[in-house]
Amino acid sequence: MAEILVLVEHTGETVKKVTCELLTLARACGEPAAVWTGAGAEAGRARLAEFGAAKVYVAESKDFDDYLVAPKAELLAELVAQKSAAAVLVAATTEGREVAARLAVKTGSGILADVTGLADELVGEQSIFGGAITVQSKVTTGTPIIAVRPNAVTPEPAPGAAEIEPVSITVSDAAKGAHVTGRVEQERGERPELTEASIVVSGGRGVGAGENFALIEKLADALGAAVGASRAATDAGWYPHQFQVGQTGKTVSPQLYLACGISGAIQHRAGMQTSKTIMVVNKDPEAPIFELADYGVVGDLFKVVPQLIDEIEKRSQG
Fold first, then answer.
1. pTM, rounded to two decimals
2. What is the mean pLDDT of the chain?
3. Which domain holds residue 42?
């Protein structure tokens, strides 16, 4: 069975959820082989094994920490040639997309971007026009390079050996053009990361103003949830753009998604419609987002949300 290379997304020793999604897809198409750059592979090995990685190619050179993106593309290109890989899967994150593009150029291969699923013979499924149309695409030249949208696939465990195999390459001078001169650790609160959270509470145009997002944050904190926002809210400057949920923002697929004051434009729906349970609070009974809702409340969010918070706090204390 041909190997499918999976570029591991990790923070230190912690394997990110999207890597588990990539391994799940890879298992259906071949033998998953994870590619780990930098330190921490031994600690992350158990997680990779849990989701079916047969091998873990580990490149511990500091070049992968000291330089931006390009060394990873060179490593993958070397592995594609050495292992005759059937395909390479990466996460469609900001960095992952750049790695995929560089790798496609180096290997003379075709690339599929923003894939939401894989079928037999590496046929990729893509959602376009804000989720209104689904298309199937296939790479016909070289080794398929496939960038998969985070949270598009449900990760499914399946035991794998995850045998560690050290690899080394000599990174070219061209790949060392952009050097990391320093790092600043981002201050994070107690809320979970948006794309990793099991519960997400999002606010939209109906929130009315930036200061009113405090109510959305209070509901999120009561539930131990992450906070999201619609494009209308972030474009208005009410909430930071990194929390935007939608086709041009983050894709989320939590167990519970609460949409407060969000009308449900196609752009937003494309980023959250795979959520397991969707609850909507909106005063407009004709809002399109009610079409996706498992539970809906037609009412003013400034009256409904405080009552919801009170009830959650009562139950948590009881």
1. 0.82
2. 93
3. 3-176
pLDDT at 318 over 80: no
17-27 vs 41-50: helix axis angle to the nearest 10? 50
Q: How many domains does the chain have?
A: 2
As a whole number of angstroms, the distance between CA 19 and CA 38 comes to: 16
- Range in 47-56, 86-95, 166-175, 285-294 the model is least confident about: 166-175
Distance CA 261, CA 302 (A): 10
**Could you tell me the pLDDT band of residue 183, with boundaries at 50, 70 and 90?**
confident
Q: How many residues in total does the chain contain?
A: 318
Domain boundary among 147, 176, 205: 176
Taking the C-alpha atoms of residue 58 and residue 166, their distance in angstroms, rounded to an integer, is 5
Q: How far apart are CA 275 and CA 204, in angstroms?
A: 17
Contacts of 31 (CB under 8 A, 6+ apart): 1, 2, 3, 4, 54, 55
Q: Are strands 256-260 and 31-37 parallel, antiparallel or unpaired?
A: unpaired
Asked whether residue 91 falls in the same domain as residue 223, the answer is: no
pLDDT by residue (tens digit) across 228-261?
999 999 999 999 999 999 988 999 999 999 999 9
